[in-house]
Amino acid sequence: MHLDSSVAARLINDIQDCHILVVGDLMLDRFVDGAVTRISPEAPVPVLSQSTSQQMPGGAANVACNLAQLGARVTLIGACGDDTTAADLAAELQHFPRITFIPVTVAGRPTSLKTRYRASGQQILRVDDEVSIPISDSAQGELSDQVNAVLDTADMLILSDYAKGCLPLTLIRSLIDAARAAKKLIVADPKLADLSVYRDVDVLTPNLQELANAAGTSPTEIDAIGATATRLAKTHNIGTIMTTLSARGILASQGDGTQFHDPARTRDVFDVSGAGDTVVAVISAAIASGAQLELAVALANHAAGVAVGKSGTAIVTAGEILAHMPLSKPVIEASALAGICQDWRDAGDKIAFTNGCFDLLHPGHLHLLRQAAATADRLVVGLNSDASVRRLKGDTRPLQRAEQRAAALAAFDLVDAVSIFEEDTPQNLISLLQPDVIVKGGDYQPADVIGGDIVKKRGGKVVIVPTYAAYSTSKLVTSR
């Protein structure tokens, strides 16, 4: 099946109902940006004049953030220290309401911190503050207990191993065995060269170097890489080995010789930090929601193309993924849509209407759309134009053009039509379309909703959908 915007939207919609358990090495990624204008007189090194600093979750925490930003419910478990880095990581994770964070605190152990120094967007130095010795037996026992307490309610277990000590060999095996006994899907992002440790997992996601380390060879051609991965999958009873090939895309290999290669999409590469985590997250979420393997790979590859075009440890939203795909349904002019709405009414259908900016389509938006679609037979979305968004939100918004925002909305099967309006409010559009239901997200009172008087005169109603888990594009922007 070909991946187009409507298929991708269907996968993303299904992801909203998944619960994924992520276990692994927790990190905080810090980025220090500035300018280099001179060389130090003390040594032949550049002097960075710091201008900005930002931080974001890394490692297993970045996998969890990518999952949550796609709408999956996530439980994140990992070991960290009792230091300020751990506190900063916990604070950053609070920006993602879909994540339940269960840290296993190891006193005296530093929480992994990677600080990247950049000049003109290019990394000039990375400093890692961490230890990689295995966590203690008592910490392993506590982590295992926490995992077992959550496992029954999860659809999938992801082991995100960065070889920083959170997942020693014996713990990996016990977690895999527990997940198998509970009949859960298992995805492992490996660091150990001995792949027998990961035997029986459903999906293994090595990069090419990790695959080569495991095989003891260095294949370079696609056929040779596939043959190597197939042999390893068969030897260790691994369902599928997804080898990430950087600029060459993703190669899926199964023990029976089945191969699927999805080439990378051509994009401008700004920063590859965390792109592998994006791939792991998207493949896992798609498979957990029941997607076919080829579609899961294609969606992940597409998301990775978005991720490498972003600065920092990348977290990709549904709106960004869909905005890079062609429109699946056209944006309809208001006058034409009025006639379509009349045809729907003549056929006995009730029409729901909701509106907004829908900038960087996120789980809060998807929750509103799903709730709105459930109130009627047809759902029409009124979309603020770019000029309208600027008047309402300021000159820095929207982050996506109206055409991109419309493409993301129109891709969903539950949306029957999208129409862009230029005014600050949808009053004129509502008056023209005459919907039966107006659905508004937030803490509004029905009497205050614009257009409510119009639908009530027709015997319709106003439905208020509370803001979902405090999601908003403004908060997403400040956390990026």
Instruction: Write down the overall mean pLDDT.
Output: 92
Strand order of the largest sheet: 5-4-1-8-9-10-11-12-13
Distance between the termini: 33 Å
Largest sheet: 9 strands, mixed
* Helical content class: 25-40%
DSSP strand count: 18
Report the uncertain regions.
none
Based on CA inertia axes, which overall geometry fits? globular
CATH topology annotation of the largest domain: UDP-N-acetylmuramoyl-L-alanine:D-glutamate ligase
- How many helices in DSSP terms? 17
Protein model, in words:
The protein has 480 residues and is of the alpha/beta class. The chain has two domains: 5-314, Ribokinase (UDP-N-acetylmuramoyl-L-alanine:D-glutamate ligase), CATH 3.40.1190; 334-479, Rossmann fold, CATH 3.40.50.620. It has 17 helices and 18 strands. The strands form three sheets. The protein has a nine-stranded mixed β-sheet with strand order 5-4-1-8-9-10-11-12-13, sandwiched between helices. A five-stranded parallel β-sheet has the order 16-15-14-17-18. Strands 3-2-6-7 form a four-stranded mixed β-sheet. β6 (112-119) and β7 (122-129) form a beta hairpin. α2 (60-70) packs across α8, α4 (137-151) runs parallel beside α5 and α8 (275-288) runs antiparallel to α9. The longest helix has 15 residues, at 137-151. The chain is globular and about 70 Å long. The protein starts with a helix and ends with a helix.
